[in-house]
Amino acid sequence: MQNHILVTGGAGFIGSNFVQRWIQSATTPVLNLDKLTYAGNLQNLASISNDPRHTFVREDINDAGVVGKLFEQYMPTSVVHFAAESHVDRSIHGPADFVKTNINGTFTLLEEARAYWSSLKADAQQRFRFLHVSTDEVYGSLNAGDPAFTEEHKYCPNSPYSASKAASDHLVRAYHHTYGLPTIITNCSNNYGPYQFPEKLIPLMVLNAMNGKPLPVYGDGKNVRDWLYVEDHCEALMLVLRKGRVGETYNIGGWNERTNLDVVNSVCSILDELRPSGKPHASLVEFVKDRPGHDRRYAIDATKIANELGWKPKETFETGIRKTVEWYLANEKWINGVRTGEYQKWINLQYISK
């Protein structure tokens, strides 16, 4: 069978954006492996559902037998590993799933990738890449005046989620240094954009505001994140896959630090313009009890990827957030599709029951 690129978690938020972008701009077909947990959604891939270059397989990366057979059948030239449990709040309520998927699942994928890679001829081994997509949260929290995270920043994870991602990063690095597997790690800042599951800050605020519901903001709302538009992130990943140095880590950030309250107010301002309700949407803001261990600030220094690979984000926060709000307003069918009992159960647990 023709060589593919293997994408894990390709029905999730970032993964589905990456797969769509890949199909639009590359010639190598995609094998999309996703377990379809609560945040995996085949509606995210509707635009390419009939494209013969996209093959979707619903399986678990923890199933070594299945993963091994997929490597053997589709002979991937690269692996782009998105599959992960990714929501901090969920990791606080149920850390076991994060250990299983983010650590054990990455280990299984690495083992099967190593076995496959070891069977390749020398030229194919040199071309093969294992790109592991991770997060800036592995670095811990910054104070207001601290310099942004560089690739040399020490790991200091503060939640079960970030600890599980840190562990997976270490495994990927070890498989390169121990076995020679050609791996690359990327650590990105907070993504936003189309197809994001509405437990995350921006889509939750958009959907609640559209329906006149309270806009829950943790603590004093002054926690700072660096916001990266998802399409910019996907472009960076494609560049790293083509030109990144094996064994290296690249931080990918948007150069857009904003407090959570600033983000919510930006969403409200755009909605006041595009979907006026008779009163400012910001009047719906409701401060709620802060979550345990809430990191105060993240910020990415993306100088390395800019200098080495020539990447920088195209979207400012102002242009990206407008595109994002407009997308949610124009895609009510998608919104209705994700408003399942699982989603409502989570919202009740996290916000209403407190």
Provide structural commentary.
The longest helix has 23 residues. This protein is globular. It has a domain of 235 residues: NAD(P)-binding Rossmann-like Domain (Rossmann fold), CATH 3.40.50.720. The chain is α/β, with parallel strands linked by helices and 354 residues long. Helices cover 45% and strands 15% of the residues. Helix 1 links the parallel strand 1 and strand 2.
| Top-tier CATH class of the domain at 5-192 and 229-255 and 294-313 | Alpha Beta
Describe the largest sheet: 7 strands, parallel
CATH superfamily of the domain at 5-192 and 229-255 and 294-313: NAD(P)-binding Rossmann-like Domain
Supply the CATH architecture of the domain at 5-192 and 229-255 and 294-313. 3-Layer(aba) Sandwich
Number of helices: 13
Low-confidence parts: none
Number of strands: 12
Beta-strand portion reads: 5-15%
Structural class: alpha/beta
- Strand line-up in the sheet with most strands: 3-2-1-4-5-6-10
The termini sit apart by 53 Å
What's the overall average pLDDT, rounded?
A: 94
Overall body shape? globular
Cα Rg? 20 Å
User: Which sequence of SSEs, written as H and E, runs from N to C?
Assistant: EHEEHEHHHEHEEHEEHEEHEHHHH
CATH topology title of the domain at 5-192 and 229-255 and 294-313: Rossmann fold
Helix fraction bin = 40-55%
Quickly list its features.
Rossmann fold, 354 residues, 7-stranded parallel sheet, 12 strands, 13 helices, 3-stranded mixed sheet
At a glance:
With 354 residues, this protein is of the alpha/beta class. The chain has helices spanning 13-25, 64-74, 88-93, 96-118, 122-127, 160-179, 201-210, 230-243, 260-274, 303-309, 317-330, 332-338, 341-352; strands at 5-8, 30-33, 54-57, 78-81, 129-135, 183-188, 190-192, 215-218, 224-229, 249-252, 257-259, 285-288. It has a seven-stranded parallel sheet with strand order 3-2-1-4-5-6-10, sandwiched between helices. Strands 7-9-11 form a three-stranded mixed sheet. Strands 8-12 form a two-stranded parallel ribbon.
